[in-house]
């Protein structure tokens, strides 16, 4: 996927949104942000996705994480569409801003393009407080995203960041489950870093690289 990717800084564009005009880095400052794009307003899958984001907003609030949508229509169209989204979700309010991009000038700069359709995609970047991309999803327009997976991936990023990336989260990990210790950490370091202890899986190779520990 050409364009900005993991580790890159999101360009500090000035964006017009349903909640006013601001520079992206001002919005990203001091918290994590889930930035998610949509092919267009008044489309069925997007309506369900933006509604789900509104329903899940309290989960993102609890984690101190901001939401920022983007759809390739203008602000007035977004405001009209929000009435449909809120009606569809039976009253969940769309309080997060939605960026207007009626001329499709912003999405290529954010690398939120579907290369197959050569148009706007169902992309999602999780952006850190340093305005750098920490995780990206790219889905085709025919596949709606899974908000539980967005939250789960976000929880993994927050947990790894809290532990200076000395831990990682294994397959299907959920909060409160054991994590694994990074291969960059020796057993000696791990003993100091994780006084609660860790368990090394006994595998045929005897390489001792799969070590689980419990952190909070
Ligand atoms: C949708 O959001 O429903 C959608 C958008 C573009 C193409 C197909 C579906």
TrEMBL record:
Catalytic residues (positions): 46
GO cellular component: cytosol; mitochondrion
InterPro entries assigned: AhpC/TSA, Peroxiredoxin_AhpC-typ, Peroxiredoxin_C, PRX_1cys, Thioredoxin-like_sf, Thioredoxin_domain
Gene3D superfamilies, sorted: Antioxidant, Horf6, Chain A, domain2, Glutaredoxin
Keywords annotated in UniProt: Antioxidant, Oxidoreductase, Peroxidase, Redox-active center
GO terms for biological process, alphabetical: cell redox homeostasis
EC number of this enzyme: 1.11.1.24
Protein name, per record: Peroxiredoxin
Organism: Arabidopsis lyrata subsp. lyrata (Lyre-leaved rock-cress)
Species classification: Eukaryota, Viridiplantae, Streptophyta, Embryophyta, Tracheophyta
């Amino acid at each position: 996927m050409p364009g900005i990717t993991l580790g890159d800084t999101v360009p500090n564009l000035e964006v017009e949104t349903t909640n006013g005009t601001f520079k992206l880095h001002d919005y990203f400052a001091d918290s994590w942000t889930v930035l998610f794009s949509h092919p267009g307003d008044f489309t069925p899958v997007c309506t369900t996705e933006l509604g789900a984001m509104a329903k899940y907003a309290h989960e993102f609030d609890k984690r101190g994480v901001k939401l920022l949508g983007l759809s390739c229509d203008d602000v007035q169209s977004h405001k009209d569409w929000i009435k449909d989204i809120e009606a569809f979700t039976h009253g969940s309010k769309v309080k997060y801003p939605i960026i207007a991009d009626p001329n499709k000038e912003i999405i290529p700069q954010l690398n939120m393009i579907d290369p197959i359709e050569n148009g706007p995609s169902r992309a999602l970047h999780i952006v850190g407080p340093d305005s750098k991309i920490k995780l990206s999803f790219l889905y085709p327009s025919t596949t709606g995203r899974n908000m539980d997976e967005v939250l789960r991936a976000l929880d993994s990023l927050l947990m790894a960041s809290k532990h200076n990336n000395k831990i990682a989260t294994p397959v299907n990990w959920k909060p409160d489950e054991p994590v694994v210790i990074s291969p960059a950490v020796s057993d000696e370091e791990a003993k100091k870093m994780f006084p609660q202890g860790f368990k090394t899986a006994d595998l045929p190779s005897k390489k001792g690289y799969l070590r689980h520990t419990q952190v909070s």
